[in-house]
Specification:
The complex is a heterodimer of chains A (about 240) and B (about 525).
Chain A: E1 2-5, E2 11-16, E3 19-25, H1 32-47, E4 56-60, H2 66-83, E5 86-90, H3 92-101, H4 104-109, E6 116-121, E7 127-135, E8 141-143, E9 148-150, H5 152-161, E10 167-168, H6 185-198
Parallel strand pairs in A: 1-4, 4-5, 6-10
Antiparallel strand pairs in A: 1-2, 2-3, 6-7, 7-8, 7-9
Chain B: E1 10-13, H1 19-29, H2 37-45, E2 49-57, E3 63-72, E4 79-87, H3 96-110, E5 115-121, H4 125-133, E6 137-146, E7 151-159, E8 168-173, E9 178-185, E10 188-196, H5 198-202, H6 209-231, E11 240-246, H7 250-267, E12 271-275, H8 276-282, H9 284-288, E13 295-300, E14 305-312, E15 316-322, H10 328-338, H11 345-353, H12 370-375, H13 383-400, H14 406-434, E16 439-443, H15 450-462, E17 466-468, H16 472-475, H17 479-491
Parallel strand pairs in B: 4-5, 8-11, 11-12, 13-16, 16-17
Antiparallel strand pairs in B: 1-2, 2-3, 3-4, 5-7, 6-7, 8-9, 9-10, 13-14, 14-15
Helix pairs in contact in B: 1-2, 6-7, 8-17, 10-11, 10-13, 11-14, 14-15
Classes of the chains: A alpha/beta (about 240), B alpha/beta (about 525).
């Protein structure tokens, strides 16, 4: 199974059963498009595999900054297409939660009442976040709700409102794969996918978790320089569609 | 390292004219064993040698030769030799030596060589490792070959792959709002599938980069699938992948490049990163089997308005001018909005203008006044025209205290279109006449404009200039043109791009391959 995640840096792993055959991680959260090809090729070489040997591809769906996230999704999708592999998607936050819960101390503290809070940098001084109540029997991090994006202060208020005392682990720096756990996110993604496959919850949905609409404002009707307004309603039929 | 400012570095074949400049580099690089000028002259003019120079602009000075390399290949022989290679000290560690060596390898392969030999100083490990990375292997040692220093020469050899003259290439284009996947075999078009997100941008009145990028991600897999089906091929039939890496919208380009790299890695095939604008020029090959050069190319779309002089598709493309504000297609979109017409504006204005009088209003022709022509002879500007049209509509409506009549709208649309077309064709013709180039090639989505084609045809005919307008599906952004350009690179023996290249939203036309 080839796992590709570009929610932070570029992280690629190849797993077979319990064995991690290859792990390639690049530093920096801005160089996805430069590193993705080499990362995949290196992982294949390290694992001693050809593309055709890959039977399943799992991609990290974020949520994450869009531009980098799409590089990994595009690569994973087309790789699977080219070699005829099955294609799966896992939320990148789920992989981070899985990583965090590998720490017995963290796992001990986490319960449905005191869930684990996982956050990731969403830029614009916001964070992507999700809550996890523990691990399933197969070892899948149990997410209580869909991931969301908020300002940290708003997130705090929200948790207080819901009377949740969350277990927090250190905020993940976008460029730092090691801040959360020793397991790189590509590998963690693969582990989660394997566990979900075993419990038959692995999804073929690989659509990106954007959580934000594109930044685009509908144009106002053309502003006239003069005082008079004679025109028929400008693109009235189009506005507000 | 050096502190000089270096502009873009270009490679071109050397001629006799470069002799003095080459000798200047030769003396800088080989203090004790430089060749004589007479010898170098013979090298440059000989029929079995092929020399390339790298040129750069330093500070504000003129472009000058900063490196060169020469190849020897006797007709009929399967062997070729690197005669010499030299890079000025200030320009080392920039990959110039590698670029020149790749060029010599390409030349040798084109000339049918199956082996390439070179000698390198035994005390130059940097050069040796460069050659090793280009698949040269040490096969011999010549004692005291370099005199007067008494240094040994290491003889190295590379086996050259024969050129694939009919490569099957899949090209991916994602620089704007069109996801294009094309497949060619050599110069033959096998598939050209385009998925456009244009309708999603319609309500915003222009391309929204984030929407375009999202649409590319969704469209890629099905578009690739359809292209293979159209060509009747499978992934295994592909010899190489080509992809646009600029110019264009960064976020959009990255989707195509990410996918193309994964494809190359999955299939273990070479990848060629190519220039979108040069792709527009090269597409003529798919209709004619070759690109006749030199040609002037006028590329007009929603994102570009560029005038190019193309002496050689791969080695000599010069940007004569481009728009200094809006692209022509953008101007059509904006005027359409002002006039209450739909997006995209080009076809709408064409429709409304059909019954209008192009001479009804004399709108300004941007950058055509003598003072502008001195500085911006081949550049375009449409923002002044846009303002003039808006002002005209406003004044007219104020004066008549009523909205424009249909007739007035038609006249304004026709007059606006005439002003755009007049400048586009006028400047393109000036470029043809100034450079004594008897042909003009149109490309880009705006070539769909009926009036542009009519005026270009009429004025080209009057000036004895041959006009080429590829089929519309090859004029708009498409993957076939990218595949065609990739195939040209392969057919001329060029090395693949490797997997580390990035995207460049302002990639210059002089960089045909990254």
């Amino acid at each position: 199974m080839l796992a590709i995640d570009t929610s932070a840096a570029t992280s690629v792993a190849i797993l077979r059963g319990d064995a991690v055959l290859a792990e390639v991680n690049t530093a920096g959260a801005m160089m996805h498009v430069e590193s993705i090809g080499t990362a995949i090729a290196q992982a294949l070489a390290l694992a001693g595999l050809k593309g055709k040997d890959v039977q399943a591809v799992v991609v990290g769906r974020g949520p994450a900054p869009f531009t980098g996230l799409r590089v990994g999704l595009a690569a994973g999708t087309v790789f699977a297409q080219a070699v005829g592999a099955q294609l799966f998607g896992v939320a990148s936050l789920d992989a981070l939660a899985w990583s965090a819960l590998q720490d017995p101390e963290v796992l001990d503290q986490v319960s449905p009442r005191t869930p684990l809070l996982i956050t990731a940098d969403a830029r614009r001084s916001e964070v992507y976040w999700a809550l996890y109540s523990g691990l399933s029997a197969q070892g899948v991090a149990l997410r209580s709700d869909m991931p969301a994006v908020n300002k940290p202060a708003a997130l705090d208020d929200l948790l207080i409102d819901r009377n949740i005392e969350a277990v927090r682990v250190r905020l993940r720096e976008a460029s730092d794969l090691t801040s959360l756990a020793a397991v790189p996110i590509g590998t963690a993604l693969g582990r989660v996918a394997q566990a979900q496959l075993a419990e038959q919850t692995l999804s073929q949905d690989t659509s990106p978790l954007y959580l934000r609409a594109p930044d685009a404002v509908l144009p106002k009707p053309h502003a006239r320089y003069g005082k008079a307004e004679f025109s028929k309603p400008v693109i009235a039929s189009e506005v507000g569609k | 390292m050096n502190s000089v400012y270096v502009g873009e570095i270009g490679l071109r074949p050397a001629t006799e004219v470069d002799l003095a400049a080459i000798m200047a580099v030769e003396h800088q690089c080989f203090a004790s064993d430089a060749w004589s000028e007479a010898n170098m002259h013979l090298e440059l003019v000989s029929h079995h040698t092929f020399y390339w120079v790298a040129t750069a602009q330093v500070d504000d000075g003129p472009e000058r030769v900063v490196a060169y390399a020469g190849l020897s290949k006797v007709a009929g022989s399967e062997q070729s030799d690197v005669q010499t290679i030299a890079v000025e000290p200030d320009f080392r560690s920039r990959g110039l030596g590698r670029q020149l060596m790749n060029r010599l390898v390409a030349e040798a392969r084109q000339l049918g060589a199956s082996e390439m030999f070179l000698e390198v100083r035994a005390d130059n490990p940097v050069a040796q490792s460069l050659y090793e990375s280009l698949d040269f292997v040490a096969i011999d040692r010549r004692r005291g070959y370099y005199q007067p220093d008494g240094v040994d020469a290491v003889v190295m050899r590379a086996q050259l792959e024969p050129i694939n003259s009919q490569p099957v290439v899949l090209g991916i284009e994602s620089s704007c709002d069109e996801t294009g996947v094309g497949i060619v075999r050599g110069t033959t078009l096998l598939a050209n599938v385009i998925s456009s997100s244009m309708q999603e941008h319609a309500r915003f009145g222009g391309v929204v980069p984030e929407i375009a990028a999202r649409a590319h991600l969704e469209a890629l897999q099905p578009t690739i699938h359809e292209a293979l089906a159209e060509a009747g091929l499978t992934f295994d039939d592909l010899d190489a992948i080509a992809v646009t890496n600029g110019p264009g919208l960064s976020g959009a380009l990255m989707v195509g490049v990410g996918a193309a790299k994964a494809l190359a890695a999955a299939l273990d095939k070479p990848i060629y990163a190519v220039n979108h604008l040069v792709g527009h020029v090269g597409v003529d090959i798919l209709e004619r089997g070759e690109l006749e050069t030199p040609t002037i190319a006028l590329l007009v779309s929603g994102g570009h308005t560029s005038l190019l002089l193309v002496n050689d598709l791969l080695d000599d493309v010069v940007l004569l001018g481009e728009t200094i504000d809006d692209a022509a297609g953008e101007a059509f979109d904006k005027i359409a909005r002002i006039m209450g017409l739909k997006y995209p504006g080009g076809p709408e204005i064409d429709r409304v203008a059909a019954s209008g009088d192009p001479k009804a209003v004399r709108f300004p022709r941007g950058l055509t006044l003598p003072k502008d022509m001195a500085k911006h002879r081949y550049d375009f500007s449409f923002s002044g025209l846009k303002t003039a049209v808006a002002r005209h509509i406003e004044v007219t409506e104020n004066n008549q205290q009523a909205a424009l009549s249909d007739e007035q709208t038609s006249d304004i649309a026709a007059s606006f279109r005439e002003a755009v077309v007049d400048v586009l064709v006028g400047k393109a013709l000036a470029a043809c006449l100034d450079h004594n180039v008897p042909r003009l090639l149109l490309g880009g989505g705006v070539t769909a404009n009926a009036r542009l084609r009519a005026v270009a045809a009429e004025r080209c005919a009057a000036n004895g200039i041959e006009l080429r307008v590829p089929a519309f599906k090859l004029c708009t952004d498409n993957g076939a043109m990218i595949a065609a350009l990739g195939a040209q690179l392969i057919m001329r023996g060029r090395a693949a791009s490797g997997l580390d290249f990035g995207t460049d939203s302002t990639l210059p036309v002089t960089t045909v391959q990254s």
